[in-house]
Amino acid sequence: MAKKSALGRGLDALITMDDVQVQGSSSISEIAISKIHPNPDQPRHDFDAEALAELAASIRQVGVVQPITLRQIDEDNYQIIAGERRYRASQMAGLEQIPAYIKTAADDDVLEIALIENIQREDLNSIEIALAYQNLLDTLNLTQEQLSERIGKKRTTIANYLRLLKLPAEIQMGIRDKKIDMAHARTLVTLDDPATQIEIYELIIEEGLSVRKVEEYVKALNGGENLQEIKKEKAAVQTAKSGGMHKATPEEFELLKKHLSKFFDTKIQFTCNEQGKGKISIPFKSEEELERIISVFDQLKK
Predict the structure, then answer these.
(1) Percentage of the residues of the chain whose pLDDT score is greater than 70
(2) Most buried residue, 59, 137, 145, 238, by CB count within 10 Å?
């Protein structure tokens, strides 16, 4: 399908004053809300109820300041190109008619325009953007590079969003509901096992893990470590750092010793009596190794 001349020229050619301009003449008309229908391929599916209520209250007071954009399907039906949020708020406000620009646009163009309009406003969550990108790729039979050129986004950005669709549905729902952010999700994508991805996802929610902590977990898992062992190591280290009253078991001391040995890249000597008193010794075989160990401590101070 040949591209229309309005497409592929960047966002400035498509978006003007919060609405989308496409080929064809237009004028503002008052259209009955009963004749207007949302675009089924609209990328955005979640509309904040409180924000809609606030917009509806504003519309009751001053009306719809910025007309929505429609295309005419037949004599009695119109489909939204841009402005579904204003349309929904107008319904809530009890309006019977709404000002609208009537434009001409092909099916493919409507999907592309709706996506670009919403991305420009940053109204979509990460999963909605990913699904919209995939829909565009499938519908228009584009490569990621071609899509990058048409919507003005880097190909790597598009690829990162599309990778989110490989995550289990539970995690995708969590991203959509803002239980975790995209940075967490991009780290989870690097794990191959869906069950492990869900385990880490649940840990993020339960323990409020930072992205950096998740990266540490994922790095250890990809290095062949067991998740339960990693959790025990981190719990032992955290107990040691906090000086808590928990009495560590021999197994926990052994895990801590293993963790410290790995951290300093040398065999740590670790002793502790029943009262919790003991010492940690860091042996070195040369001045060079001593300097390396001191540099580790210097990094910790930073």
Answers:
(1) 73
(2) 59
> Count of H helices and E strands in the chain?
14, 9
137: number of Cβ within 10 Å: 16
- Which residue, among 211, 207, 189, 208, has the nearest Cα to 198 in the 3D structure? 189
Cβ atoms of 33 and 95 within 8 Å: the answer is: yes
Q: Residues 50, 54, 75, 84: which is the catalytic one?
A: 84
For the record, the structure tokens of 45 come out as 């599916």
Q: pLDDT tens, 221-264?
A: 888 877 777 776 666 555 555 554 445 556 667 777 777 788 77
Q: In which element (H, E) is residue 116 found?
A: helix 107-121
> What confidence category does residue 12 fall into, taking pLDDT thresholds of 50, 70 and 90?
very low
Q: Report the C-alpha gap between 263 and 239 in whole angstroms.
A: 17
Residue count of the chain, please give it.
Answer: 302
Of 77, 144, 88, 83, the C-alpha closest to 110 is: 83
Secondary-structure class of domain 11-124 per CATH: alpha beta
287 is catalytic: no
Q: pTM of the full predicted structure?
A: 0.52
Half-sphere exposure of 7 (CA within 13 A, CB side): 22
Instruction: Write the Ramachandran bin of 286: left for phi over 0, alpha for psi from -120 to 50, otherwise beta.
Output: beta
